[in-house]
## 1
Amino acid sequence: MTDERLPVANLYPDPPLLDRWLNVPGHLCRKERWKLHDLALDHVRTACLEIGSWLGAGLGCLLSGTRGTEAKVFSIDLYNEDALQRQMLTLEAYDVDSTRLIRYDGPSQEIGKHWAIPLDLVFIDGSHEPEDLRQDLDLFAPHVGLEGVMILHDSRMPDEDEIADRVNRLYNLRRLSAQLRPAIEGWLVDQMGAWCELEPCHSMRVFRRKVLPQ
Ligand SMILES: C[S@@+](CC[C@H](N)C(=O)[O-])C[C@H]1O[C@@H](n2cnc3c(N)ncnc32)[C@H](O)[C@@H]1O
């Protein structure tokens, strides 16, 4: 893959900033934050989308991974004033260029019906109801171009030793990943080999498009 941007070393935040960045509140563990950052760095050229942004930890990873580019970062959430204020504080901590961030307020299952923007990466972490996830996949996957990636949070159980210190998370994740699995597998069957699965990270499954969207 050609990369016309700055060398990777210049894109990484400096250590004090990095420390703050990994500690801002959110549901993503440190490994997942790095993974999201690196997937954005490797795959995003023009635009990416996060469904379900809450306090902005994932958005910070996407904005940071596309640092130094003109790439747009879209976010869809059921925004409320409190979450929005806290998200803006998070992004300040990340010290990223928020002028590239475009927020949509509303259910992704409605916004997706009118979506027309090509995307290089979609990170789904919104509604965890299986029917909603399936709708998100059906509505947004067609906008992901060749070599683009779909990332699904809470979709697998990490290795036990990775979550030994977070028992509540383990219980939640066991339930969430089991409830989402049939929706994901059903979508994959209907996609008829259009995606290959990349190496997972913690609770994230990652799929890369290998066939042009129809
Ligand atoms: C687990 S949090 C997201 C965590 C976030 N990705 C992070 O990096 O910490 C889930 C978010 O999804 C949003 N959400 C739930 N249902 C949604 C829907 N149908 N459409 C859009 N956003 C939704 C919630 O408002 C909440 O902010």
## 2
Amino acid sequence: MNLTPKEIVEYLDKYVISQNDAKKTIALALRTRYRRMQLSQELQDEIMPKNILMIGSTGVGKTEISRRLAKMMKVPFIKVEASKYTEVGFVGRDVESMIRDLVVNSISIVKAEQEEANKNKIQNYILNKIVEKLLPPLSQGASESKKDDYQRLLNSMEEKVANGEMDDKIIELSFDKVHIEFNDTNLPPEMAKVQESFSKIFTAINKEDNKKEVTIKDAKELLKLEASSKLLDTMSINNEALKRAENGGIIFLDEIDKITVSAKSQSRNDPSKEGVQRDLLPIVEGSSVTTKYGVINTDHILFIAAGAFHLTKPSDLIPELQGRFPLRVELESLTEDTLYKILTQTQNSLLKQYEALLGVEGMKLTFEDEAIKTIAKLAHRANEITEDIGARRLHTVLEKVLEEVSFNAHEHSGSEFIVTSELVHKQLDEIVEDDDLSRYIL
Ligand SMILES: Nc1ncnc2c1ncn2[C@@H]1O[C@H](COP(=O)(O)OP(=O)(O)OP(=O)(O)O)[C@@H](O)[C@H]1O
Ligand SMILES: [Mg+2]
């Protein structure tokens, strides 16, 4: 994808309100990778990605930005919580597993593309297989006219299967290979080999018993797997996927502040956190990781780390790691106005979601503008009084406002419900102003 930084920001604007610095920085980082790919191999090797550290309190859009990006760019992308590597009883789930997950993600992207590109071939394969079951083969030495008839029958049958007319009919399918996919990518490659052997044994055991009665509808799905494994070139998919993960992959390291140890808390007694930071170093800096699909070099993978850094500061990260995240962006806390815009201007905003949900019950839900403003105001107020949980507050607040309506919606099918400012006040005022109450309810 070769969108300009401006186009990337424009796209993000549809989903994330304000946070312009973060959007710009990320857009630029992505464009830089595109630029890099246009250069000679020699220069390409020199240009390292500039990893990004996003700092901002909870619920201000850190994860949302990355999530949207990944969707738009169709690049290999995964999100991991840094804190999970410190979990007690954490065995075997090594930090490198994030790279393996990235490769798996990449493979699914490339595979989907290939399936799309070979849609017709795959479709034909499936139809052939099904029609084969429906029509007994023509006997040897049939006359020319018989052959013609047969062909005509075949064609009309194919059409019927294709357009779903025969979906309910049951046929017996035999599978060439039982598709038992062991896909625990978190296992190191040595273990993956063991997995493969197991998978082979299972296949062998299942050999005799690989006939199954299914509806044509299900057969279409089942045969899709077989078709793509037969028609698509797995090797080249894997290679392409590795290459893309290597050059275009993004790893979003969420909750990075959870693996920092505050310099103030003298006890520095959290070896596991620092340990994870040290484990991360080589990966972020660039090293080779062996995966089931081949070796991948992590030099050019872009890392975007994010954290609230309430109790710790970025400078509490071990120095080597700090240096690997040269770009810092701060996300702003959400103002009343931003909250209002989040409700009204984002694609699939919460309001639209509620409207659609109650629409299912045949109820027309509308929000007066004044009511939305009040919701934003009270959400902001609740954030001030208790903890600032950013836009997440809107969820709890709206839930409270619509509690009654939502519960009884099915009884009011066909009617319209207008959310007014009075209703919002009635539902929320008491709670917001009562510290204890809002702590529990909002
Ligand atoms: N600036 C924003 N514009 C639009 N929606 C937002 C914005 N900030 C947050 N949201 C919404 O709030 C919710 C939480 O946001 P998000 O997951 O990005 O938080 P975060 O910054 O990653 O917080 P945390 O530090 O807790 O992980 C999401 O549903 C998101 O859509
Ligand atoms: Mg987050």
